[in-house]
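Reviewer 2 asked us to include a model.

Predict the structure of this chain.
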Amino acid sequence: MKAVIRLRTYIVLLLLALIIFWGVCMSLYSFFVLKTAVVDEAQKEVQQKLKTVRSVYEDYLKSIALTFTLIERDDDIQALKNSLHLDYLYWIDRDRAQTFPSEIVQAAFQEGRTFGGTRVLSSAELKEQPQDFTIKVRQITPKARKSDVKVLDTALGLEYARPFLDHQGRIDKVLCGGWIINKNFALIDRINNAVFDRELYEGKPVGTVTIFQGDIRVATNVLDDDGRRAIGTQVSEEVYHKVVEQKKTWSDRAFVVTDWYLTAYEPIKDIRGKIIGILYVGILEKPFVAVQNRMFLSLLTIILLTALPTLGVSFLLTNVMIRPLTALAEKSKKIAQGDMKTLVPADSNIKEVKTLTLAFDDMIEKLSEREQTLAETNDKLAVLNKRYLDLIGFVSHELKGILSSIVLNTYLLQKGILGPVNERQSRVLKSMARNLDYLAITVKNFLNLSRIEKDEMTIDKQDILLKEHVLESAVDTFTQQADEKKMRISCDVPQDLMIHADPGLMQIVVNNLLSNAVKYGKENGEIRVRAHAVDNGVEVTVYNDGMPIAEVDRQKLFKKFSRVVYRGMEKVKGTGIGLFITKEIILRHGGTLTVEPGLEGNQFRFTIPSA
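Predicted model (structure tokens):
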């Protein structure tokens, strides 16, 4: 059953649903707009910052180049190194230059010009340095690239080399110097400060810069969970694949050590084009998400503040509408109880509601007039129906006595008991007997109909043997009629099968079904009477060969004064009340009656309670 709700509730819920739908749509739209305006713009800013960091990174290399142009062959190298704050600065003579592990030095010597760039310093070179540049690899983040490297004993160097010529114009030595990037926090902070403000969020730098050697962080201001620089941690597999293996720039949201950042990565190459590291720039995502969330919550607050007055106004409007409708509903209840006098006051200021109220009052007046007319008509019909039923009962009762005498005398004449009759007279008497049988059955049916219509049919239920007390008598009654049509009647019913029913009424039921089976069955056909016990009762079937009843006609069979006649049956007589009476008797016994057409006939099936 459907749940019933008040109109006010329905309207308020409908408006609330519309507000929620509008709010959700606006929220989603605003969310994506804010994302585009805040996060996406920040991502574009990161890409621009990466270009700036690259430029600053290259400017440091250029500063070495500028300094090298001012150095003379007799200058104090150690003093120059200290003044330039370089990690290493030394001369490499002609004999060592060709085999020196620096490709930058080799290129400067071979081509006779200055070269600068980033290169990987070997562990042997690092051992000559006073500072320890080895880095322990740490895999502390779930997205970090897996690696078998435990300790990084090489380093990245930002290096410049300048060849010097002797008096014969030959290169006799190369000046080489640079900064070691690994653990060079001063260098990374200067780059970061040149690009970002020193803004912190929850104790972490908002802007971050990192230089990777391969996939390992060697210089960074990104902090780990302990607040230390995340030296030795690794880049994610996804970024490594894109930047190092595919040699492309990465720009997207990424999880960096402990937090999500808006990031940009690009490869660092040596002078031969080989990728030896990654340059990273990132902006902490949390501040932007916080701004986005604050703006989103502000928008939701505005929507909610708009929704509350809307709901209040809708509540007031529904009150104005519902008051007269409630009055109409209360009046409808009184009408259902028979009160047609009180009218509904049409005092609403709403035109449509007032029109409805006036129309309802007009309807009440017309209903009152119609009810009075119907009451008078029903009284007349009740009188007429009583007269009709009395007439049927009287006529049927009177005819029953007269017909009994006529039928008896006709059969005495037909059998020759009252004297011999010739063949012609016998045929006439036989026709008279058949018509008198039909008339007798008709009279009985009308008597039964009268009893049913007056609700005077009493049921005296008894435990009776179905075959002995009902079926055998009925079969004997219609055997002669069946023989005339060369029809066979079989009754396959157990002798001990008992029912709890009125024997007289059950005789009427079986007689009507067998009478129809004989009348509407085909010549040389078969009539089969069967019965067997079922759950809480007995099921009886009466089958006859004949024209199958169409589905559209099945419901007509059990209606009063309704007959179904097919081609070839036009001369079969009937009143259309036999099956109606039969079904009424079965129903009053608590049973059911149905018809089931087959390929060559029809089967009537009824159930009756067992003894």
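The CA atoms of residues 592 and 606 lie 5 Å apart. The first strand starts at residue 88 and ends at 93. We have added this to the supplementary material.
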